[in-house]
Amino acid sequence: MEIGNKIIYITLCYCFARHGLKQFRNGWADGPAYITQCPVQTGKSYVYNITVTGQRGTLWWHAHILWLRATVYGAIVIMPEKGTPFPFPQPYMETNIVLGEWWNQDVERIVNEANKLGLPPLPSDAHTINGKPGPLFPCSEKYTFAMEVEYGKTYLLRIINAALNDELFFAIAGHSMTVVEIDAVYVKPFTTQAILITPGQTTNVLIKADRPPNRYFMAARAFEDAPITVDNKTATAILQYRGIPNTVLPTLPLLPASNDTKFALSYNSKLKSLNTPQFPANVPLQIDRHLFYTIGLGMNKCPTCQNGTQVVASLNNITFVMPKVGLLQAHYFNTSGVFRTDFPDKPPTPFNYTGAPLTASLGTTTGTRLTKLAFNSTVEVVLQDTNLLFVESHPFHLHGFNFFVVGTGIGNFDPQKDPAKFNLVDPPERNTVGVPTGGWIAFRFRADNPGVWFMHCHLELHTMWGLKMAFVVENGKSAEESVLPPPKDLPPC
């Protein structure tokens, strides 16, 4: 698709998100179930009417109800306007690389059984590259994605992490990568031997086929620096130089260790917006609303569960309860009793967030509570990991907006000292950001898109446990600054 006011019609079933598409005033096409629409019922259809404006680059779409995005996802590639070159060397060819997870059993059955016990579901059985796990698994060669390259040519890889629950390292044996774009926003190019990409993120890299002609493995493996069980198996695909026979055994890349926090922090620190006259970084400098949200795990009572409790997750100690009516619909028609707009701007009880593990009094409050934002107001959000049960990294995604990641750190955020170190010149602009294990991130955005917009951890496990909330962005003063009317075929609840 091309940038501009082009309208794209998609007919699908269930609920589907166009991850990263802003869809100004048109939350009806955003996709998350019970946030901007009710699910499309079996045998029915719903036309997502999408206008792409002011965006280009790599995004993606996926199912946005239950765990269906385990296998239901794909790339969205928005090309620049005709005649507009990339701000980096023109590649000879482009290839989409979509990273995913695979379960040998019906994933919904696994999730339902875990919920009955009040415990986490089993981790995936494999990671995949373009839907295939590669020859390190007991599969034949046909279950391996292969990309043929010509010596001396430069290639653009559009990499998407569609995995449900795993942040992933990705590398190519013998080849360095030059990062040029993240979440459909150009960055200052830098060269790296591996990338880190969280669920929900996209990363575009250039590679040059300048190594001795051979067959080289591309590989993806989980990054996890918290004491939890994840799928630690390595998925592989093949970068194959033209003319090299398939009988040649590929070589493996040297991926960072699965718990290499140092690499993760160093890699993320290199991500900076291009910030040129053509591609400016319009970082909000004056802030109207400061929000501080703690991320925590908890244990709530569950008489039918195995231990009488179930694991939950929360923001500011609130475990989000999904409504039975779409929140945008309730907001547009001013339907009472569906949600409240009293989500707290800061945690109800301050504590040493990343100190010694807290394993007592882990109950959370529950409710469908949202934060209301004035139209065109500037917002700063600090997301703080906590040591409730244990510390863990969390990739957070905000629907309807891009935001600037102005700061990050390990330990507790210090509101007196840390803002002085914020990058307000060329911070990375994203729609999904990883909160480091035992640390915090701060991001800023302008609330110029009216509607109801979901913010949630993009680890499906945590989203299921309630690690989510939503912003109600009020209408502006004119019709052009107000939510569009709902489409006539909006699915009923």
Automatic annotation (TrEMBL):
<protein>
    <submittedName>
        <fullName>Uncharacterized protein</fullName>
    </submittedName>
</protein>
